[in-house]
Specification:
19 helices, disordered N terminus
């Protein structure tokens, strides 16, 4: 993520997970032309990245008028289909970013029937996916996976080892929890330090704010960002104030980071800030991040912007010399899909389901599945596991 003000419209996310919190290194992304999508049957290849993405999205906005309400059997059918798409995403061999997305979606919006799939992901060939799986199982406090998690304490990747320490802490074993602070303050690899800051925040231990404050002196801006977000989640008011400042700073990448971090607080006191960003932000990505944040507060402002983007299907030219039109188009649509999921409007289920089923980029398909399950979850009075932070 770019920290300087030279390219204020750069919103390129880490790990290609737009609204996730992972700081894992997923390596070089394969070009879209080599990536099959996730249909129900055998997988055809889509020849053009941007053309396939836009054609699929344009097809969502076709001539058929979507039904405003769905019957209970239709809802169940869609939900079952979403879970199947996430399972396919979790075994998607062509791109670890897709597998990581599926892990995060299962962590936050899928039910307990997906836990065996998360357990299997602990042994994935890519360390980024193993990291995400350990975190997911720790967040879900899945005691069945304890032995597999313990095995990751000897993983070849230091970040995965830390994720295993985090998961075991969540399961009641704090014997090695001190390693998180040690790695945060001393590891030579900034990526490991970033992951340590992220994991310490997820522990939900207010006493950890002190070590995170020390990490704010780190020379790596990414470590500072993760430490700042974690402190805000732990209730440090100064960290929240700094995020509000960054959200108003005019640097696109920092605005999106700050708004996504503030959204995790689920504070109604921030609603006016998010409304202001939807109405007045210069960067479209900032508007969409704010729309998602409002949706997480059960406020609908901004949903229409996201809805129009998903239904129309269009290209979004790159505004940064380091960006591409294909990447920005994907990024904007993923943000819009996430905003619709947070808004929780049943009227969007049909549109998102069509998008998920079309032969589009698999990252869009997984995003749509996650959004649908998030909307479905809103209908349940009792959640099977804690709400996403």
């Amino acid at each position: 993520m770019r920290e300087s003000g030279k390219n204020p419209v750069s919103h390129r996310p880490r790990a290609l997970v737009i609204c996730g919190i992972r700081c894992v290194d997923l390596g070089t992304r394969p070009r879209r032309s080599s990536l099959p999508s996730l249909p129900h049957s055998l997988t055809p290849f889509v020849p053009s990245a941007l053309a396939a993405c836009v054609a699929c999205l344009a097809g969502v906005a076709g001539c058929v008028t979507p039904p405003r309400t769905l019957t209970a059997p239709q809802r169940q059918e869609i939900e079952t289909r979403c879970v199947e798409f996430l399972k396919r995403g979790l075994t998607y061999e062509y791109n670890p970013a897709v597998r990581t997305q599926a892990v995060e979606a299962m962590q936050e919006v899928a039910d307990e029937t997906t836990l065996p799939w998360l357990r299997a992901a602990v042994a994935d060939s890519h360390p980024g996916v193993r990291f995400a799986a350990c975190v997911a199982l720790g967040v879900r406090r899945d005691s069945v996976c304890r032995q597999a998690i313990e095995g990751r304490l000897n993983d070849t990747d230091r970040s995965v080892r830390l994720a295993a320490v985090f998961a075991l802490h969540r399961l009641g074993d704090t014997s090695r929890s001190g390693e998180l602070a040690e790695r945060l303050l001393s590891d030579a690899d900034p990526l490991v330090r970033r992951n340590a800051a992220l994991l310490i925040g997820l522990l939900e231990e207010p006493g950890a704010a002190g070590v995170l404050a020390r990490a704010m002196r780190d020379r790596d801006a990414g470590v500072q960002n993760h430490a700042l977000e974690s402190m805000a989640v732990l209730g440090v008011s100064e960290a929240r104030d700094q995020l509000v400042f960054l959200a108003n700073g005019g640097i696109g990448s920092q605005e999106v980071f700050a708004i996504n971090a503030l959204a995790r607080l689920r504070s109604r006191e921030l609603a006016d800030l998010f409304r202001s960003k939807v109405a007045n932000a210069v960067h479209l990505e900032t508007k969409l991040a704010a729309a998602r944040a409002l949706g997480m507060l059960n406020l609908a402002e901004g949903a229409e912007l996201a809805r129009g983007i998903v239904r129309r299907g269009q290209r979004f030219p790159a505004l940064d010399p380091d960006d591409t039109t294909a990447d920005r188009t994907l990024r904007v649509h993923m943000l819009a899909i996430a905003a619709l999921g947070a808004a929780g409007d049943d009227g969007d289920l049909w549109t998102l389901d069509r998008l998920m089923r079309n032969n589009a980029d698999p990252r869009l398909q997984v995003s749509a599945a996650r959004a649908i399950l998030e909307i479905q979850r809103r209908r349940s009075a009792a959640l099977p596991f804690p709400a996403a932070r």
